[in-house]
Amino acid sequence: MHELSIAQSIMERVEAIRVEHEAPGIASVQLQVGTLSGVDPYALEMAFTVAVEGTLYADTRWDIQRIPASVDCRSCGKTTTPDGPFPICMSCDSTDIEIAAGRELMIETIEVDRDEESNNV
Known about the structure:
A three-stranded mixed beta sheet has the order 2-1-6, covered by helices on one side. A three-stranded antiparallel beta sheet has the order 4-3-5, with no helix packed on it. It has a domain at 2-67 and 101-113: hypothetical protein PF0899 fold, CATH 3.30.2320. The chain is elongated and about 55 Å long. It has helices spanning 2-20, 41-51; strands at 25-34, 61-67, 70-73, 79-80, 97-101, 105-113. Helix 2 (41-51) links the parallel strand 1 and strand 2. Helix 1 (2-20) crosses helix 2. The model is unreliable at 117-121 (pLDDT under 50). With 121 residues, the chain is α+β, with helices and mostly antiparallel strands. The protein contains two helices and six strands; from the N terminus they run H-E-H-E-E-E-E-E. 25% of the residues lie in helices and 31% in strands.
């Protein structure tokens, strides 16, 4: 399950941001995961459950937004959303496409917990 190592890497980045802002904790983290990223959002959610156990992030809310794939077709000029694992133009079936969205795996926002008495720490 490579999602566990991804969750741990994301936690390391979040920790660096927490330290940089001298915050006692992190209330929530919003992530974007594209359908073409190779990451299973459900498995990533489960990985966070394991990775945060017994850490400062045990009460942090990890919100995962799934980003659907979309492609720009060089043949017909349309932007479509493929309905399968192989990105093709859904208008003309061309494979001469550019992926416009769906490869994301990124931290979108982090809500820093500034309240030292909070249960999020």
